[in-house]
Amino acid sequence: MSPKENRGCRIFDHGGDAGIAAWGPRLEDVFELAFLGLVDYIVSGERVRPREEHRIELSASDGEDLLVAWLGEALFLIDGEGWLPGRVKVGIGDGPQGLSLEAKVWGEAIDPECHWIIRDVKAVTYHGSRLVRQGETWQARVVLDL
Amino acid sequence: MVWEDVLQQLDEYRWQIPRGYKPGMLVPGLIFTDGEELAFLKEEGQALEQVANAACLPGIAGYSYAMPDIHTGYGLPIGGVVATKLPDGLITPGGVGYDINCGVRLLATPWQEEDLEDKWSCLADELYRAVPSGLGARGGLKISQGDLEQVLLRGAAWAVEQGMGFEEDLRMSEEEGGMSGADPSAVSPRAQKRGQGQLGTLGSGNHFVEVQVVDRVYREEEGKIMGLAQGQVVVMIHSGSRGLGHQVCTDYTRRMVGAMDRYGIKLPDRQLAGAPLNSPEGRQYFGAMAAAANYAWANRQVLTHRVREALAKVMGKGEIRVVWDVAHNIAKIEEHIVDGEKMKLCVHRKGATRAFPPGHGLLPDPYRQMGQPVLVPGDMGSGSYVLVGKRGEGFASACHGAGRRLSRGEAKRRLQRDEILSELAQAGVELRASSRQAVLEEAPTAYKDVDKVVRISEGAGLTQQVLRLAPRGVIKG
């Protein structure tokens, strides 16, 4: 984490593959930053227009499980729906299993003329996943299978 | 951890991680490697830790094995082989990997190197046109829901029935290109949606179609049995189950993570999450995994058809024969002898190839006496190998490739695209890649030395070298 910024996201090397780390003052921030960071890692091109809205609801027993499931939603939107997220708003609270997440995602269908998928991320793994609060900052980390 | 004090050398190519290394290990770890590679593994540390973690799987038999191309993965290392006892040993999606039945198929052509002379470039262009590669689903077959169900149930046989291949293609494939026990209803609508538009596409990353030339023959007799000889042109296809397989692994890993407490299972890495084979979760995962494996076999069959069409356009008529097709990310129910006792096991191979020894009853006729062909792709600049299974150790397994030396990020930072292209051109390799990224990340220097991996495999008695194949035309996803 850069000491100058209290929120951000970066890609790191892991074995032959890569991982994504995000940090921010609120739990919701790291979920939003990691989600958009993952989308940026996969797709390049022009700005995404918020033409449509997707709603996502998830529940999980703990933060890491919720984070892995949440980032998996980004992969499915891109590869399964051919849809590109551009903006996201996350709310996290207590749920029946432990934690629940409600999100709104704005974006548009992938247009091959202006959005280029530059990387195939097969999956978000549980291996080494971490979600912790250190002082005033939440930190998240997951490893990707490329 | 100082691995120096932990690892026990058994002989020149075998190192053991004793059971006492960490709490929860039920069997020792056994790594097939040599001193030089081991030094690298000790320094890196994570892959060895993953071998030890896998030794904690409930119901594990024998050893937690690592093949000579071992490197860091998630849950199991790449190159990991573990077998769990039926009926209630653990089945873990993390022990198979996300690209279920990622595998390799080798096709023999009737042509010699000199027949192609000035046609290499033209052939590379034609293959690049014929084989949809890269990211996204464009170029895939449009199939109905009913067809997808048949693909999931029957694998390559579905494609052959549609006119995309021959009965003989099926015979020359592990499981005859279709695994029994597939359950399409266990494959989620999400996974099916991802699979519907991607059949017949190569994918990206390390997936490829390569036109190669047999440039070294180590065992003429075995080469002859496979119908391969010096100078012959062959085609290698490396691809898997695309988004469908990734989603199956994603869905079931999450489900297993949720179910572990219920079964009282505790493991050192959540990515190894699993359930007893005879539990509802275990049975459903096996059914979904087999269905995804069948999708991958159908995919390689459709790709074979597209390669045949491209070759016919450039070279004219000629029989293109399937030599063999191997799965290197899969779990299978097999019989093996452990501690003198014959038992039924669920063998997980993640980045490892089955390598049945000579005489094994599950091998088709031409290969039964010789042992199972093992196809080991190297990097796009150096070469690939055809081996045969020898001793049957490690639940009859062997290496699956060279293994990465540089992470994708490091390759991108350190390597120059123009240099890679010029080196490949000098080596006589025609490369067609869908992106700049693919060139950098898949550069020859990003990979370990495949020659060495194969030498270790032979030294350890897992396989014998038959042929070396040099790349000449490479289509990268």
Q: What is the gyration radius of chain A calculated from CA atoms?
A: 15 Å
Largest sheet properties of chain A: 5 strands, antiparallel
Average pLDDT metric of chain B: 95
The 3D shape of chain A can be described as globular
| Arithmetic mean pLDDT of chain A | 92
Number of domains of chain B: 1
Count of helical regions of chain A: 2
Within CATH, the superfamily of chain A carries the name Archease domain
Low-confidence stretches of chain A: none
What features would you describe in this structure?
The complex is a heterodimer of chains A (146) and B (477). Chain A is an alpha+beta fold and 146 residues long. Chain A has one domain (8-145): Archease, Possible Chaperone, Chain: A, domain 1 (3-Layer(bab) Sandwich), CATH 3.55.10. Chain A has two helices and ten strands, in the order E-E-H-E-E-H-E-E-E-E-E-E. Chain A has helices spanning 27-42, 63-80, and strands at 8-14, 17-24, 43-45, 52-60, 83-95, 98-109, 115-117, 123-124, 130-134, 137-145. In chain A, strands 1, 2, 8, 9 and 10 form a five-stranded antiparallel β-sheet that branches. The mean pLDDT of chain A is 92. With 477 residues, chain B is of the alpha+beta class. In chain B, strand 12 (329-338) and strand 13 form a beta hairpin. In chain B, the strands form four sheets. In chain B, strands 7, 8, 9, 11, 15, 16, 18 and 19 form an eight-stranded mixed β-sheet that branches. A seven-stranded mixed β-sheet of chain B has the order 1-2-3-4-5-13-12, sandwiched between helices. In chain B, strands 6-10 form a two-stranded antiparallel ribbon. Chains A and B meet through strand 1, helix 2 and strand 8 of A and strand 4, helix 8, helix 10 and helix 14 of B.
Tell me briefly what this model is.
The complex is a heterodimer of chains A (146) and B (477). With 146 residues, chain A is an alpha+beta fold. Helices cover 23% and strands 49% of the residues of chain A.
